[in-house]
Amino acid sequence: MATDSWAQAVDEQEAAAESIGSLQIKDRPEENGTNSSGAAAKSEVDGNNKTSDDDDKEDKAAQSLLNKLIRSNLVNTTNQVEVLQRIQTLRFNSVKSFEELRLKPQLLQGVYGMGFNRPSKIQETALPMMLAEPPQNLIAQSQSGTGKTAAFVLAMLSHVDPNNKYPQCLCVSPTYELALQTGKVIEQMGKHYPEVKLVYAIRGNKSGMKLQEQIVIGTPGTMLDWCTKFKFIDPKKIKVFVLDEADVMIATQGHQDQSIRIQRMLPKNCQMLLFSATFEESVWNFAQRIVPDPNIIKLKREEETLDTIKQYYVLCNCKEEKFQALCNIYGAITIAQAMIFCHTRKTAGWLAGELSREGHQVALLSGEMQVEQRAAVIERFRDGKEKVLVTTNVCARGIDVEQVSVVINFDLPVDKDGNPDNETYLHRIGRTGRFGKRGLAINMVDSKMSMNILNRIQEHFNKKIEKLNTDDLDEIEKIAS
Ligand SMILES: Nc1ncnc2c1ncn2[C@@H]1O[C@H](COP(=O)(O)OP(=O)(O)OP(=O)(O)O)[C@@H](O)[C@H]1O
C-alpha cells in the first residue's frame, strides 16, 4: 500500500515548483514525456520519508466504517465457499433459504423485513453451523460486504433466552463506531423480538449495576472492565462470544490481549465466533487463540482483472496540460461517471476546482473530511448526483462505485519509494464486473519517472497500454466506440 510520505514529498515538490514557477524558471519536460524533475521528485522523496502526511493516514477501522456506511447491498460473488470442518463433527448442509434454518418466527420476520430474500454465499454455510446444537465454534473469513455481520447477529438473536435478564451474548468490535453499526443491525433484525435487549459496552456508558440486557456489544477494553473491574457482566453465563473484524482488531494496540482475557473467562461450552475480512498470518494466529477447535470457512475474493478494460496513456508536460487533456476527453466522448485519482490532496482540490469552473458536477473526497462526511460524498456520487469524483487514493481505498465507466489516473499510483503500486492500479481500474462489458482507464504521464512507472505497470500485468493523443478529437472518439 502507498503511504503518505511520498504524498507529502510531492506536496512539497509542488509547492517548490510553484515558487520556482513564479521566478520564471520552469522546468518544462520534453514532448516524449521525459522530465528531469522526475528524478528530482524521487530524491525529494528519499530525503523526506520521515515526514508523513498524518492527516491523510487512514486506519483500517475508518476504512471499514466507511464501507459499511456507503454499502446498501451485498457484494456479489460467485466464488465457492471453502469449508474446513472439525474432525468428528456433525456434517452441515448449506441452506438455500432462511426457512430451512427454522428460525423463530419473529426473527424470520426481521430478516425478511430487512429485504433479505435468501442467504448470501457465506451465510448459506455459516448459518447452519452457527445455529447447530451443540454449538459450533467458527472462524469465518470473507471480504467486507458479503453478509458476515447479518449472519452472526442472527446467531446471537437465535441463541438468547429473552426470559433470562442477564447478558448471554458478547460481541466485541474494534471501535465505538463499528460497534454502533453492528448494534443497528441487531436492532433491525430483532425489531419483532422486543424482549431481547441490547447494551453498548463503550467508554462513558457505565451502567452502574448488573446488566439486564441479553446482548452486550462493545470495544474490548470496556467489555473487559465490565466483566472484571465493575462486574456488570457475569462471564460464566455467556453462551455466545463474537469477535468481529479480527483483522482490524489486531491492528490496534492492546485489543488482542484484552480479547484473549475476555475469552479466558468464558465457560468451555460458550460458542466462539470470529470474523475477518482478510486472513494474513497474524489474523490467523490470533483467531486460533480465540477460537478453540474451530470450523473454518473462507470465501475467496473475486479475482480482479484487466481483461475487459481498455487502457490508455496521455503524455503531458504539467498538471495544467493534464487538465486540458481531460477537458478534451470530456469534449469528445460522453462519460456517464468518472473517478479521477490524484496523488495529493492539493492536486485533487485544485483539479476539482478547475473542473467545477468548466461546469462539471464534481465531488471531492478529501483527507480532512470526517468518515461520515466522506460516506455522504460517496453516497451522492453513487446516486448519480455528481458525475465526477476526484479523490486521493488514501481516501478512496477500498471504495467500490460500480457504475463508474471511466477511471482516470491523473497521477499514477506509486508506493512510498516511488515504485509502481500495481495492487492499487489493479484495484482502481480492474474490479470484476464493475464496468459491465467494457471499461476505460486513462493514465496521465507527465515525467520520465511516470513514463517509467507506466512501463513497469504494463510489464507487470503484461497488458499493453496504448498511447492516446488528446489533441486529436477523432482519436479520442474512437476509444469510446
Ligand atoms: N442475505 C442477504 N440478502 C440481502 N442483503 C443482505 C443479506 N445479508 C446481508 N445483506 C446486506 O448486505 C450488506 C452487507 O452485509 P454485512 O454488513 O452483513 O456484510 P459483512 O461481511 O459483515 O461486511 P463488513 O465486513 O463490512 O461488516 C448489508 O447492507 C446487509 O444488510
Structure, described:
The chain has 481 residues and is α/β, with parallel strands linked by helices. The longest helix is centred in the N-terminal third of the chain and has 19 residues, at 4-22. Helix 14 (371-382) links the parallel strand 11 (362-365) and strand 12. Mean pLDDT is 82; it is low at 1-58. It is 40% helix and 14% strand. It has 2 domains: 71-299, Rossmann fold (3-Layer(aba) Sandwich), CATH 3.40.50; 309-480, P-loop containing nucleotide triphosphate hydrolases (Rossmann fold), CATH 3.40.50.300. The chain is built from 18 helices and 15 strands. Bound molecules: adenosine-5'-triphosphate.
SSE topology:
Layout: H1 4-22, H2 37-48, H3 60-70, E1 81-84, H4 105-113, H5 121-130, E2 138-141, H6 148-159, E3 169-172, H7 176-189, E4 198-201, E5 215-218, H8 220-227, E6 240-243, H9 246-249, H10 255-265, E7 271-276, H11 281-290, E8 295-299, E9 309-315, H12 319-332, E10 338-342, H13 345-357, E11 362-365, H14 371-382, E12 388-392, H15 393-396, E13 406-409, H16 422-429, E14 439-445, H17 448-461, E15 466-467, H18 473-480
Parallel strand pairs: 2-7, 2-8, 3-5, 3-6, 4-5, 6-7, 9-14, 9-15, 10-12, 10-13, 11-12, 13-14
Antiparallel strand pairs: 1-8
Helix pairs in contact: 1-2, 3-14, 5-6, 6-7, 8-10, 12-18
